[in-house]
Amino acid sequence: MIQLSDDPTPEERQAVLDAIVAFNDAATGAKAETQAFSALVKDEEGRTLGGAIGYSRHGWLYIELLHLPEAMRGQGTGTRIMEAAEAEARRRGLLGIHLDTFSFQAPGFYERLGFARMGTLRDHPPGHAIHWYAKRFDAGPPSGEAKHHSGDA
User: Fold this and answer.
1) pLDDT digits (tens, 9 = 90+) for 71-95
2) 109 close to 83: Cβ distance less than 8 angstroms
3) What is the CATH number of the domain that holds 79?
4) Collapsed DSSP state (helix, strand, coil) of residue 112
5) What is the model's pTM?
C-alpha cells in the first residue's frame, strides 16, 4: 500500500532516514557521522541577525542556509562567514564545502570565493534555476564538475 500525505510525521521521516543511513553506511563501509555547524552574526543584545547553518557528513561541510539582512550585504560579512566556515571545515579535516543557491540569490558570490558549479536545474523555480556548488580543499576539481555555462536562469 502507498499512502500519500502532505504532512509526514517525524516518526515516518525518521524511519525513512534511518533506512537510508543504514544502506549508505553498508555501501560505503563508513558510519555517517553528522556534526552541526553555524557561523552566526549577532547584535549587541545577542539576537541572531543572519549567518550560515549546516553540518558536516561524509567528509564534507554542507552549508544548508546562508542569509544576511540587506543592510549587511556588500560589506564583507558574507565573505567572513564563509572564511570561518572554511576554517572550521579544515579544522574538522574535511575535503571541502558544498551548497546550493538559486540563480536570484548568490551564485556569483560563491564563484568569487572559489566554488565550482557542479550542476544546474533550470526552471526551479520556473524562470530561474538552482545551482549546486563545491569547493575542494585539495588541488583537484570536485568530482563530476560540470563545465561552467553563462546565464543563471
Assistant:
1) 999 999 999 999 999 999 999 999 9
2) no
3) 3.40.630.30
4) helix
5) 0.84
